[in-house]
Design a protein that fits this description.
Shape: globular
Number of strands: 7
Strand content: 25-35%
Helix content: 25-40%
CATH architecture: 2-Layer Sandwich
Number of domains: 1
Structural class: alpha+beta
Largest sheet: 5 strands, mixed
CATH superfamily: RutC-like
Distance between the termini: 25 Å
Strand order of the largest sheet: 1-2-7-5-6
CATH topology: 60s Ribosomal Protein L30, Chain: A
Length: 160
Amino acid sequence: MSVLQRLQQLGIVLPEPISPLGSYKTLSVAGNQLHVSGLGPFENGQPMVGIVGDDMTVEQGQHAARLTLLMILACIEHAYGLDNLQRCIRLTVYVRATQSFTQHPAVANGASDLLQALFGADQLPARSALGVYSLPMGIPVEIDSIFELKPAGHDAVKRS
């Protein structure tokens, strides 16, 4: 089953992809790897804001991580198509949190659990979950990622 079919089966609709907020590309291909710049959560077209452990619970942080992964997938679908993906091989999850907050891995599970639902438990990526003092626009989570593209014959061809 393709990633798009799995998303449909789960009743998930991708958000509108965002454009870079500075002098960089959202996506960059190197060999069979698709590198995705750090992106954040958007809900109803607006960036989600907050600090986990202050005005956001762990569960709300997990929701922000899930929304962030959906934005990543939306950008990939727009530019290359999700059917060109083999799997996610790396996630780095930055959590804007209070100094005493220690549950960063639990927040990151919001993204990892969605990847597991899409690709399977045996395809989960390597991951880091880090606490930070601030993130752009006041977002609570930023994720950068690396995906493996399908082998030759399924080469990713940029759509736009």
